[in-house]
Design goal:
It contains 1 helix and 30 strands. The two termini are about 35 Å apart. The radius of gyration is 20 Å and the shape is globular. It has a single domain, classed as Neuraminidase. It is mainly beta. The strands form 8 sheets. It has an 8-stranded mixed beta sheet, with no helix packed on it. The longest helix is centred in the first third of the chain and has 4 residues.
Length: about 400
């Protein structure tokens, strides 16, 4: 999610020096930023939250907005700019791990079931107090006595993911157009992917999962979609190239720490921003079975210290990247499909947490090519997360507690 002290990162392969790279790579982006007459402003000025990590809606026609606080509370309020109070929708703070000095843990993701209006189900990704560095995805249901709130006692664990370290937990969960739940997992943490999880199909870490939460396979609280790309496959793993089963939950792999992914409500494309380590931040379009390169590559660039093994056509290039002379920790957003800011329609809005810069990426889906990267005006705030309301209007959050939205300056 965020950047941390250099002690976690290991040796820098291409040291950044005065805006250039010591090994000779240019960090100049292929697409130069162009200013756009769009800026950010405070939304819901009467409301503040504790580390708002998710902002979303239930898709139930109620026009409510929900904000998940990283400490473990989900709050709800009417989508009214004059709203003066939010109320608790779900409180699992006592089950949830969070500490300021290990701030990549906590309640990290939530998603409402596509049929929430009928079944009252929502899903939450969080670090559990049951044991150190344990991530869970759990199902909760609205209260039988009061459907305006979720029942903490209704928790059903769907999947648990033990983590070796406290950072790189990923945490975005989102339902795709196919009705399956997608789960973004980091590589397990520390620096340099020391356990090699990004390229290991026998572990869930360093991958995007795709599961069916409406069915159950034997021994699981979910089912594996039959068309998942690694169902029934074996891969070499461990000493002497022993063949082991690939994890069938995996939809794509080779990611370091996706900090926010989202589906475009118009095209169905899955967008993901992967936070870099030494030099490159990247944006990817996620495809079934894709290998996005970590820790062989960072962005489009060779990463491993054991030398470049040449062309790797099996690795999927990011559609866009930027170097650390521009920003140092990408926060992925969403493709804008609202109406209030026409300049943003069809463009992917995203940010950099360290520099506070905001952009809108114009991507030609048919040509699979970036046409422009537009700079937006903000307050240089560290953006934690983006989300939308039922009408497709985009909001973003900061650790200071306020919500923001975009406006046209014309």
């Amino acid at each position: 999610m965020l950047k941390f002290a250099s002690g976690l990162l290991g040796p820098v392969l291409c040291t950044l020096l005065a805006g250039s790279v010591a090994c000779g790579q240019s960090t100049k982006p292929a697409v130069v930023d162009t200013p756009l007459a769009v800026s950010a402003e405070r939304a819901f000025p009467n409301l503040d939250f504790r580390r708002p990590i998710v902002v979303t809606h239930a898709g139930d026609g109620s026009n409510r907005l929900f904000v998940a606080e990283q400490e473990g509370v989900i709050r709800v309020f009417p989508n009214d700019q004059e709203c003066e109070e939010s109320t608790v929708f779900l409180d699992i703070e006592e089950r949830c791990v969070y500490a300021d000095n290990q701030n990549e843990e906590g309640l990290l993701g939530m998603a409402f079931h596509p049929k929430f209006q009928q079944n009252g189900q929502l899903f939450v990704y969080y670090n559990s107090t049951e044991q150190d560095h344990l991530c869970k995805v759990s199902r909760f249901c609205v209260s039988k006595d009061n459907p305006a709130v979720a029942d903490p006692a209704s928790e059903e664990e769907i999947i648990r993911i033990p983590q070796p370290f406290w950072n790189h937990n990923g945490g975005t969960i989102a339902f795709g157009p196919d009705g399956f739940l997608y789960i973004a997992l980091g590589d397990g943490g520390s620096g340099n992917d020391p356990l090699g999880n990004g390229q290991n199909l026998t572990t869930l870490l360093g991958s995007i999962l795709r599961i069916d939460v409406d069915s159950k396979d034997p021994g699981l609280n979910y089912a594996i979609p039959k068309d998942n790309p690694f169902v029934g496959r074996e891969v070499p793993a461990g000493p002497r190239g022993k063949m082991l089963p690939a994890r069938p939950e995996i939809y794509a792999y080779g990611v370091r720490n996706i900090w926010r992914m989202s589906f475009d409500s118009s095209t169905g494309l899955l967008w993901a921003a992967d936070v870099g380590q030494n030099l490159w931040e990247e944006i990817n379009i996620i495809k079934k079975g894709g290998n996005y390169g970590w820790n062989v590559r960072e962005g489009k660039h060779w990463f491993r210290p054991d030398g470049n093994d040449g062309a790797r056509p099996d690795l999927v290039d990011p559609i866009f990247e930027y170097a650390h002379d521009i920003g140092k920790s990408i926060t992925g957003g969403t493709v804008y499909r609202g109406t209030a800011v026409p300049e943003l329609i069809g463009r992917y809005v995203y940010a950099d947490y360290v520099t506070g810069r905001l952009w809108a990426l114009d991507y030609d889906v048919a040509a699979e090519q970036v046409k422009a990267n537009y700079a937006l005006t903000g307050e240089n705030l560290p953006v934690m997360s983006f989300g939308t309301d039922e009408k497709g209007e985009v909001y973003f959050t900061t650790p200071f507690g306020s919500l923001y939205r975009f406006k046209s300056d014309r």
